[in-house]
Amino acid sequence: MKKTNNRGFGKVEIMAMLALIAILLAVGSKIVLDSTSKNYNSFKTTANNFANQVSKYKDKYTKDSNIYYLYELIEKEFIEELPNPLSTGEYCDKYNSYVEVPAPNNKKVTLICGNYLIEGTQGQSYNVYELSDWSDTQTKETNDQDALYNYKKNGTLMLEDYQQKNEFLHSFYVNEGKKLSSPFSVNQEQDMELVHKQVYRTKTLVKEIK
User: Fold this and answer.
1) Contact present, 100 and 90 (Cβ < 8 Å)
2) Burial of residue 104 (number of CB atoms within 10 Å: 0-12, 13-18, 19+)
3) I want to staple 148 with a disulfide (CB 3.0 to 4.6 A). Which of 32, 82, 162, 179 is the partner?
4) For residues 72 and 63, what is the distance between their CA atoms, to the nearest angstrom?
5) The whole model's pTM is what?
6) Contact 2, 13 (CB under 8 A)
7) Looking at the domain assignment, is residue 187 inside a domain?
8) Nearest by Cα to 163 from 144, 143, 183
9) Max Cα distance, the chain (Å)
10) Overall domain count for the chain
11) Are residues 105 and 186 located together in one domain of the fold?
């Protein structure tokens, strides 16, 4: 009869266990990759749907600019907020997501959802980028920049956080009941002062979807 090794597993058992672990890791990796690919395709579908809705919105509402922001469509109750296809329970950034229509059949989509950005021309390939958080410090890795805004009233900051342009203008309107053409118009208001800062982040390409 085969003797039992009371000190632990034998070589055969250990090799069998390692083989099983390798199989499970391979299967798990494939599931994760398939799931990620599926989510990226959902991201593309959401971007295309946004572009299609802009075409309909453009036919109904005329405007001077050829850029259509997501929040405009939402405020006109033309579209609902877009769920983040890469994270459940979240919505895409309505203030910084837009479609540019330089020509009737040319729609350039920029859609930000969480820490991911998808951009490209509808009907062509899209690029998906991962975005870092905004930082006050520029490093050799940072390759994207913007300005964030806040304002003071009688010397006190009125917003909890600094915000990008469109969100800032919306917050100012909600707080003060006045629409501004630009953040710098704040300086024309009595007892108000605009404050802003330059910020930086990293924009890393993670996927090209054709």
Assistant:
1) no
2) exposed
3) 162
4) 11
5) 0.78
6) no
7) yes
8) 183
9) 96
10) 2
11) no
Tell me the residue type at 125: S
The CB density around residue 176, as the number of other CB atoms within 10 Å, is: 15
For residue 70, tell me if it sits in a domain: yes
What does the pLDDT average to over 115-121? 96
Domain assignment present for residue 207? The answer is no
Residue 6 lies in a domain: no
Give long-range contacts, CB 8 A cutoff, 24+ apart: 179-187.
183/149, 183/151, 186/151
Q: Which of 131, 161, 189 is the last residue of a domain?
A: 131
Assess whether 150 and 116 both reside in one domain: no
171 vs 93: CA distance, rounded Å = 15
- How many angstroms from the chain centroid is the CA of residue 142? 17
State the pLDDT at residue 16.
66
Tell me, yes or no, whether 42 and 127 share the same domain: yes
Q: Determine the 3-state secondary structure of 185 from DSSP.
A: helix
Give residue-wise pLDDT tens across range 14-47: 666 766 665 555 444 444 334 445 589 999 999 9
- For residue 162, the enclosing domain spans 144-201
Q: How confident is the model at residue 11, as a pLDDT?
A: 67
Co-location of 122 and 163 in the same domain: no
How many whole angstroms separate alpha carbon 95 and alpha carbon 76?
Answer: 14
